[in-house]
């Protein structure tokens, strides 16, 4: 292990999280760890003695972006004539790169996503002058080491499952998050109670394959039905699901559990069976559509979200056309779409048939145009509905508040309601769609 210069033990910290909701959850838990260790959080990385970069390895050039951020933090400190902060790299890039980050960037701490409960000790070691690395992957022992939940926002995340056994050929998650493991039922329920006690009214259950969660004979639907009985918890969501793990029990929960919101994120990735097989996806186009039919049969108003990859190695124009046809058939309320980018160490990275960037760009534009059309149509169809909106934060205008509809649309309204209130509104108009997140709807209380 490389030695670092001795540093003063940090008194302030800043956590910057990239990527998925699970990283947001992990970032919150790391912040709680450091607060419990006596450090004070700051929203300004320039004012922090310790900066934690909580990284994601899914997207292209993720590693280089980490090194760029490290360089920027040090440059900003030089320009401001202040000591450079202690830097900790956490998350999936930390897991994938390990010693290489310490060697190349001379950072103080590198900690993987299954070991961040050791962060205070790693920081203390780094303060003594020894760079610290921990990329062990124990089976969820970190959760027993985390502090009690403190004050949270009205909408909170709760990780229930980690890792992936699906080994899609394009995906690095099995290598950075490990095998599929589920947190014990009792620990999840206890944390959910603590979140509600700390101010949460909505909880989103998280997992790389959240609907693969199990504890003995209990499945995710059993967990949802138990959480539904927690006083004060009015909304439950879950993400991200895999079509292979969408059980009838979970489908029935969408019919029976009032607090389970009518929203389902169910990635498909492509509309061609040949491409799906090359991706090592366990579903076909037909099985995916039949699954959605079963969900819509019990919850007709459900909003469906998905993930798409264009330009997978060998994808032909005709196969891409099958993806467009699938989009036309489903009518997604929201979706995420990306150009394929090879992840080192994954089988797809060595596949022949790379698609030129210009072709991928054109396909992505066509796909996003189709998705945007359907998202706008879904929002427009919502106009005239009356629904409950959970107020989450203040808007930019005086008296404006922002919240979420049951269908995960961002709702803007003028109200004197407080953050955390549930307000019954009439949806008045649908704003422009954004391919980067939830869509805007305006409402009146």
UniProtKB/TrEMBL annotation:
Enzyme class label:
transferase
Where it mainly occurs, coarsely classed, is cytoplasm
Query: Residue limits of the MTTase N-terminal domain?
Result: 11-128
**All copies of domain TRAM, residue ranges:** 380-442
EC number from the UniProt entry: 2.8.4.3
Is the keyword Cell membrane in the record? no
Give its localization. Cytoplasm
Instruction: Say yes or no: keyword Iron present.
Output: yes
Task: Give the highest taxon in the source lineage.
Answer: Bacteria
Q: Which reaction does it catalyse?
A: N(6)-dimethylallyladenosine(37) in tRNA + (sulfur carrier)-SH + AH2 + 2 S-adenosyl-L-methionine = 2-methylsulfanyl-N(6)-dimethylallyladenosine(37) in tRNA + (sulfur carrier)-H + 5'-deoxyadenosine + L-methionine + A + S-adenosyl-L-homocysteine + 2 H(+)
Q: Which UniProt keywords apply?
A: 4Fe-4S, Cytoplasm, Iron, Iron-sulfur, Metal-binding, S-adenosyl-L-methionine, Transferase, tRNA processing
- Amino-acid positions noted as binding [4Fe-4S] cluster 2 in the UniProt annotation, renumbered to this chain: 164, 168, 171
Cofactor stoichiometry and binding? Binds 2 [4Fe-4S] clusters. One cluster is coordinated with 3 cysteines and an exchangeable S-adenosyl-L-methionine.
Which residues take part in binding [4Fe-4S] cluster 1? 20, 56, 92
- Cofactor dependence: [4Fe-4S] cluster
- Which positions fall inside the Radical SAM core domain? 150-377
Tell me which SMART domains the record gives.
Elp3
Family the UniProt entry places it in = Belongs to the methylthiotransferase family. MiaB subfamily.
Primary role: Catalyzes the methylthiolation of N6-(dimethylallyl)adenosine (i(6)A), leading to the formation of 2-methylthio-N6-(dimethylallyl)adenosine (ms(2)i(6)A) at position 37 in tRNAs that read codons beginning with uridine.
SUBUNIT field: Monomer.
Q: What is this protein called?
A: tRNA-2-methylthio-N(6)-dimethylallyladenosine synthase
Chain's gene name: miaB
């Amino acid at each position: 292990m490389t030695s670092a210069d001795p540093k003063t033990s940090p008194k302030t910290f800043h956590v910057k999280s990239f990527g998925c909701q699970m990283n947001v959850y992990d970032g919150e838990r790391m912040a709680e760890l450091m607060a419990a260790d006596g450090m004070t959080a700051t929203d300004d990385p320039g004012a922090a003695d310790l900066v934690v970069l909580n990284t994601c390895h899914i997207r292209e050039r993720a590693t280089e972006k980490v090194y760029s951020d490290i360089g920027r933090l040090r440059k900003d400190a030089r320009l401001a004539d202040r000591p450079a902060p202690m830097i900790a790299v956490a998350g999936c890039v930390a897991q994938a790169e390990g010693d290489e980050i310490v060697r190349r960037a001379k950072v103080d701490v590198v900690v993987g996503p299954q070991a961040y409960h050791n962060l205070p000790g790693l920081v203390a070691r780094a303060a003594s002058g020894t760079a610290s690395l921990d990329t062990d992957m124990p089976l969820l022992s970190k959760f027993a080491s985390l502090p009690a939940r403190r004050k949270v926002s009205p909408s909170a995340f709760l990780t229930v499952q980690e890792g992936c056994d699906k080994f899609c050929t394009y995906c690095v998650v099995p290598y950075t998050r490990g095998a599929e493991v589920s947190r014990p039922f009792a620990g999840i329920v206890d944390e959910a109670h603590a979140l509600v006690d700390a101010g949460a009214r909505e909880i989103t259950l998280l997992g790389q394959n959240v609907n693969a969660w199990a504890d003995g004979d209990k499945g995710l639907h059993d967990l949802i039905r138990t959480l539904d009985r927690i006083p004060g918890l009015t909304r439950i969501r879950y993400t991200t699901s895999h079509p292979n793990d969408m059980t009838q029990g979970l489908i029935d929960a969408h019919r029976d559990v009032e607090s389970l919101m009518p929203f389902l994120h169910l990635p498909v990735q492509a509309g061609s069976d040949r491409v799906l097989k090359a991706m090592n996806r366990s579903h076909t186009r037909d099985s995916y559509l039949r699954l959605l039919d079963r969900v819509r049969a019990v919850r007709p108003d459900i909003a469906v979200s998905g993930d798409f990859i264009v330009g997978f190695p060998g994808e032909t124009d005709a196969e891409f056309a099958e993806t467009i046809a699938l989009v036309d058939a489903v009518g997604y309320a929201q979706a995420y779409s990306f150009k394929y980018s090879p992840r080192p160490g994954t089988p797809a990275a060595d596949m022949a048939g790379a698609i030129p960037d210009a072709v991928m760009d054109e396909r992505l534009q066509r796909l996003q145009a189709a998705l945007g059309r359907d998202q706008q149509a879904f929002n427009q169809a919502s106009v005239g509905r009356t629904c409950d909106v959970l107020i989450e934060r203040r808007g930019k205008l005086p008296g404006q508040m922002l919240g979420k509809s049951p269908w995960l649309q961002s709702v803007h309204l003028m109200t004197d309601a407080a953050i955390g209130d549930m307000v019954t509104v009439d949806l008045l108009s649908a704003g422009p769609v954004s391919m980067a997140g939830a869509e805007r709807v305006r409402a009146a209380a």
